[in-house]
Q: What sequence folds into this?
């Protein structure tokens, strides 16, 4: 709901502290968002923010009045840096979990969330595709290659919700240039607070959103009901100048035309219509809006009016970020690869793994049979590669090279593939040999729990197949019998294959 007077923003600023504290009490252990409280804190510290806020509001109102929505007509890309501040291994969340949050932002800010269909009919005409893409930075403020993820070890058990994490004089970590990057901090905030954000009026050194590690992303350390990445979607909304749908006041104003006026926040698992009476008028709350306080699986949409507010911001106070070089490719940080590691050595395949070089787009893996000069070359952009089709029992050399003008080859690694039998030469309990030593007939007895085909092969000690038999086993006939009378004396290997599993046992043949 949008009111006419811009002077009401002063009321929005100065009154709501008590409203927020009442809200906090209602949320039991976990508290959705402390952005508004933090804003009050910031203004008290930096009163000059008030003038900046009003300028931004004036520009936003003008932008909306001119109907300049869709001005850019395309997607905006925001370079993101994620600062992971951790005390424990658990808090030091994985790259996959970080990426799951980036994916969740892209899902919800591009109206690609499948639960958009749950928006009630009366609001479905107001949903917006905000056309904003979030991407982990590939270039840091110094122009060097980066993964867009920075990790800091801390001894602090909790950080609170008043920006200490960004204040270097409070043991925190400076943000990256906010005119170029969206800074997201992930840490243990404490006191059950899920997140808070700066607003565009905040001082540059306090710019960025902070999310608790239990509410960041859609996997790993996230905890229901805040496990769909929507804490960050909500907080980034504040960072882009969106206000809570109830305007942080009793029937307050969020300066958006197409959200209904709302008395207060809605909490928890809200699935039934909620209503507000504001100025004597009853309207249904837009509880499904990302800027309410409901659980992650109850919020589904931004409105066209909220999108206008966001676009206005990127035409004014945050315009510079659209010209950021934070996502531009960089030259690799080095051309020289370390020695690769060989893993999972099998008779006909190995997996080669190596350390990432930031900015490197492609890696060449080369290998050759020992004693030849025929290097076989493969390329990948991943950090591992499986070489198939190797000869068993052979020695190979492997080396690597980056996709780099001045790059030289890595140190060579030598590996040897085992023979097929060696890979499975584990003592088996799945069958028994009787008698062993054997003179004439040998019985290979199986522990048959179900009927099935078994294939028995007998190799001599040089690995040469001497005989084999396939037989369908049942509980009544659980054995394969072979006449070994003609076999020279010595050790043999019995290989049995059943249900796709091969096992091996030694057999001693003796003569009369
Ligand atoms: Zn909020």
A:
């Amino acid at each position: 709901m949008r009111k006419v007077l811009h002077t009401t923003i002063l009321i929005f600023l100065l009154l709501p502290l008590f409203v927020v504290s009442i809200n906090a009490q209602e949320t039991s252990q976990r508290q959705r968002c402390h952005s508004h409280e933090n804003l009050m804190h910031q203004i008290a510290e930096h009163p000059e923010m008030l003038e900046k806020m009003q300028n931004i509001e004036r520009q936003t109102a003008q932008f909306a009045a001119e109907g300049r929505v869709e001005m850019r007509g395309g997607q905006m890309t925001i370079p993101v840096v994620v600062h992971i501040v951790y005390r424990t291994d658990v808090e030091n969340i994985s790259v996959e979990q970080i990426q799951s949050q980036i994916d969740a932002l892209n899902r919800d800010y591009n109206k690609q969330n499948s639960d958009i269909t749950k928006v009630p009919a009366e609001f479905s005409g107001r949903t917006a595709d905000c056309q904003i893409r979030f991407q982990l930075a590939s270039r840091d403020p110094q122009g060097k290659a980066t993964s867009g993820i920075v990790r800091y070890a801390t001894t602090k058990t909790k950080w609170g919700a008043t920006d200490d994490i960004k204040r270097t004089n409070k043991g925190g970590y400076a943000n990256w240039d906010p005119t170029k990057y969206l800074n997201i901090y992930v840490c243990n905030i404490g006191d059950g607070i899920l997140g808070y954000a700066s607003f565009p009026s905040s001082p540059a050194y306090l710019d960025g959103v902070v999310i608790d590690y239990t509410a960041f992303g859609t996997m790993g350390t996230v905890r229901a009901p805040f496990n769909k990445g929507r804490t960050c979607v909500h907080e980034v909304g504040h960072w882009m100048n969106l206000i809570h749908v109830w305007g942080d006041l009793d029937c307050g104003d969020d300066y958006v035309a197409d959200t209904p006026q709302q008395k207060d926040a809605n909490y928890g698992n809200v699935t039934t219509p909620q209503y507000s009476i504001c100025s004597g008028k009853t309207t249904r709350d837009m509880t499904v809006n990302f800027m309410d306080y409901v659980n992650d699986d109850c919020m589904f949409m931004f409105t066209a009016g909220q999108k206008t507010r966001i676009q206005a911001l990127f035409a004014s106070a945050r315009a510079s970020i659209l010209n950021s070089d934070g996502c531009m490719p960089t030259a690799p940080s080095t051309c020289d690869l370390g020695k690769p590691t060989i893993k999972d050595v099998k008779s006909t395949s190995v997996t080669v793994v190596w350390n990432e070089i930031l900015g490197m787009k492609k890696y060449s893996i080369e290998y050759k049979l020992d004693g030849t000069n025929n290097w076989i070359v493969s390329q990948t952009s991943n950090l591992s590669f499986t070489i198939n089709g190797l000869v068993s029992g052979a020695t190979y050399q492997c080396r690597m090279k980056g996709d780099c003008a001045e790059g030289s080859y890595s140190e060579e690694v030598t590996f040897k593939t085992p023979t097929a039998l060696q890979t499975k030469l584990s003592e088996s309990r799945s069958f028994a040999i009787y008698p062993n030593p054997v003179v004439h007939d040998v019985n290979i007895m199986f522990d048959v729990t179900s009927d099935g085909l078994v294939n028995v092969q007998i190799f001599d000690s040089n690995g040469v197949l001497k005989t084999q038999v396939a037989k369908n086993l049942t509980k009544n006939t659980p054995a394969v019998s072979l006449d070994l009378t003609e076999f020279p004396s010595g050790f043999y290997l019995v290989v049995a294959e059943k249900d796709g599993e091969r096992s091996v046992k030694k057999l001693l043949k003796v003569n009369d």
Q: What stands out?
A: The chain has three domains: 8-323, 341-416, 422-509.
